[in-house]
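Technical annex, item 7. During the second reporting period the consortium partners agreed on a shared format for inverse folding records so that results from different sites could be compared directly. Each record opens with the tokenized structure and is followed by the designed sequence. A conforming record, contributed by the partner at site C, is shown below for reference.
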């Protein structure tokens, strides 16, 4: 049985986790999130109810989906233990620092990464195969100095469902050995109703310092 580690049990993580749970793929899902359920987020965090407010998101989500919970932040002190048995890393976090750290750890350890993000009306998805495709640093080099968070800018709730479902599909493709969309950045503009994609070319000299080679 494959192990998938999901970072973030918010809008994206809830949708991705639910879709993976409903898939026919035998999967050990580990949900990592240090935060508690907040009533203001219930519209897009579809695994939670009013009665869950104040409880740890990872524990509630894991209980609903027969998964495993880790009430922890993904950071240097915890990354090694969290990724010890991971066959794939799913990034549904909402801050740039954690996203780039997840990218770096996945590439360094040779673990495929499915990255998703949503803010306002915009969403994006990128599947990274270490040593074979471009990664976040090949595209952006480094996190921006500052930027709005979901709490500040808001996020369209249905967009989280769209991106989260696409993340789950990408995970299944990778674990089945058919990652046809890897190395392509997909971007959604829900306001204009457009969907674009861009190939992310691998830069061997990117700041991530790719050391892993070969396939998944």
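Designed sequence (site C submission):
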């Amino acid at each position: 049985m494959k192990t998938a580690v999901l970072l973030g049990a918010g809008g994206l993580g809830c949708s991705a986790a639910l879709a993976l749970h409903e898939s026919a793929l035998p999967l050990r899902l580990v949900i990592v999130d240090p935060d508690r359920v907040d009533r203001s987020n219930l519209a897009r965090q579809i695994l939670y109810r009013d009665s869950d407010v104040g409880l740890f998101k990872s524990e509630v989500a894991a209980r609903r989906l027969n998964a495993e919970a880790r009430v922890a932040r993904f950071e240097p002190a915890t990354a090694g233990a969290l990724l010890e048995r991971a066959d794939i890393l799913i990034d549904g976090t909402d801050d740039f620092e954690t996203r780039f750290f997840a990218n770096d750890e996945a590439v360094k350890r040779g673990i495929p990464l499915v990255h998703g993000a949503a803010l306002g009306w915009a969403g994006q998805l990128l599947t990274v195969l270490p040593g074979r495709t471009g990664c976040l640093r090949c595209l952006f080099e480094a996190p921006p100095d500052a930027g709005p968070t979901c709490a500040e800018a808001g996020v369209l709730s249905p967009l989280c469902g769209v991106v989260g479902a696409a993340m789950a599909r990408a995970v299944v493709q990778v674990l089945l050995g058919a990652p046809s969309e890897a190395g392509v950045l997909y971007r959604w503009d829900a306001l204009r109703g457009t969907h674009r994609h861009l190939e992310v070319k691998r830069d061997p000299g990117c700041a991530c310092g790719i050391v892993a080679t070969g396939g998944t």
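The first helix runs from residue 11 to 22. The first strand starts at residue 2 and ends at 7. All partners now use this format for quarterly exchanges.
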